[in-house]
């Protein structure tokens, strides 16, 4: 369970306005890294065999500002597989391709209240995947990628996520092979979607593209650039490239806010107040619209599959950098301004 005692002593900064200056952000990122570097909670994922070999001591943090300011601390440039964090960006690409209504109707936007790989959730909802951040919804979303072959669909996913990251991302072949050899459950979800008439195409092929997208190799720094693109109305603040529209960013962040940490999404929003997506290799990226993105990487996870240290560090950074979307203070108190009515 999330314990906000880990960061509650930091004064709450409000989310209106801009980030502090570059030097102050840099200092706060370093403080967050050193504060949680001794934290040893959680367990490294092992249901994908090769992930069990990850070094539990790795810990990286990155913040990218919408103005292009960069901040890295610790193992921010250490590569790991993106896993479920890919779902957020593939979803944005699917809305870019098909529009708000169509994707909403096919995939849904509501939390299942159940684990990310739940079969029961699908059965309880007449085969509707409910949202794009659980595996069933992510498989249905990947199926919406354009392309006449699965190789073309995969290339569209890889290119699209690379545009978010501002560099060409590549597959971690070892992670892909390890997951492809053990992903019976995701294949079962694909076939179940198909049995309810909610997936066209060969479920095994769609799940293969999904498995590849999860094995894309990224760093915490990449994740922060990807998230900052969603914070910046769809323009990558490092490359200047427009990747998606501002409307796509808004839709994506809204669904991520309610579903990005699976059945713990309510706890997360209550304690930290930002849309965020986690992955089982230990990454989490949180997006502060109009300000930037914060990414953490540390392999040990809690029992819902979310990185323990990344959650703590992002909780600290949300508070110290004034990112919580729900925090405000009376205008008179922080600016001295007295609201006036027109003469
Ligand atoms: N590839 C993983 C899976 O499908 C992703 C899950 C995750 O990161 N939570 O099981």
Write the layout of secondary structure elements.
Layout: H1 22-36, E1 60-65, E2 70-74, E3 80-81, H2 85-98, H3 100-107, H4 120-124, H5 135-142, H6 150-165, H7 173-180, H8 184-195, H9 203-214, E4 217-218, H10 220-231, H11 246-259, H12 265-271, E5 276-278, E6 283-288, E7 292-297, H13 308-320, H14 331-335
Bound molecules: glutamine (GLN).
Keywords: Acetylation, Hydrolase
Protein name: Glutaminase
Organism: Microbacterium luteolum (Aureobacterium luteolum)
Walk me through what this model shows.
There is one protein chain. With 343 residues, this protein is α+β, with helices and mostly antiparallel strands. 43% of the residues lie in helices and 9% in strands. Strand 6 (283-288) and strand 7 (292-297) form a beta hairpin. The protein has 14 helices and 7 strands. The strands form 2 sheets. It has a 5-stranded antiparallel sheet with strand order 2-1-7-6-5, with helices on both faces. Helix 2 (85-98) crosses helix 11 and helix 6 (150-165) packs across helix 10 (220-231). The chain has one domain (18-324): DD-peptidase/beta-lactamase superfamily (Beta-lactamase), CATH 3.40.710. Bound molecules: glutamine. Glutamine (GLN) binds next to loops.
């Amino acid at each position: 369970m999330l314990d906000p005692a880990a960061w509650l002593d930091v004064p709450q900064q409000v989310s209106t306005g801009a980030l502090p200056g570059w030097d102050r952000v840099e200092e706060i990122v370093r403080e967050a890294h050193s504060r949680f570097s001794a934290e040893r909670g959680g367990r490294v994922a092992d249901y994908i065999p090769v992930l069990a070999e990850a070094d539990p001591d790795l810990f990286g943090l990155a913040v990218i500002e919408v103005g292009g300011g960069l901040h890295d601390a610790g193992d921010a440039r250490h590569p790991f597989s993106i896993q479920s964090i890919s779902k957020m960006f593939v979803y944005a690409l699917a809305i870019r391709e098909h529009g708000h209504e169509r994707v909403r109707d096919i995939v849904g936007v509501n939390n299942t209240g159940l684990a990310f790989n739940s079969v029961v959730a699908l059965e309880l909802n007449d085969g509707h995947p409910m949202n794009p951040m659980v595996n069933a919804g992510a498989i249905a979303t990947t199926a919406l990628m354009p392309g006449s072959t699965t190789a073309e669909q995969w290339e569209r996913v890889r290119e699209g996520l690379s545009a978010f990251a501002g560099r060409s991302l590549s597959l971690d072949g070892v992670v892909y092979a390890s997951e492809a050899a053990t992903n019976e459950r995701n294949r079962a979800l694909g076939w179940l979607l198909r049995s309810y008439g909610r997936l066209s195409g060969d479920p095994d092929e769609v799940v293969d593209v999904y498995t590849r997208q999860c094995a894309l190799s990224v760093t915490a720094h990449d994740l922060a650039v990807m998230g900052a693109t969603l914070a910046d109305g769809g323009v990558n603040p490092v490359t200047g490239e427009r990747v998606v529209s501002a409307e796509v960013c808004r839709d994506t962040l809204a669904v991520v806010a309610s579903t990005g940490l699976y059945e713990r999404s309510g706890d997360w929003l209550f304690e930290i107040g930002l849309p965020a997506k986690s992955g089982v290799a230990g990454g989490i990226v949180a997006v502060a619209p109009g300000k930037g993105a914060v990414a953490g990487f540390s392999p040990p996870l809690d029992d819902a599959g979310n990185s323990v240290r990344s959650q703590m560090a992002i909780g600290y950074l949300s508070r110290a950098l004034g990112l919580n979307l729900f925090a405000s203070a009376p205008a008179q108190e922080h600016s001295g301004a007295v609201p006036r009515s027109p003469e």
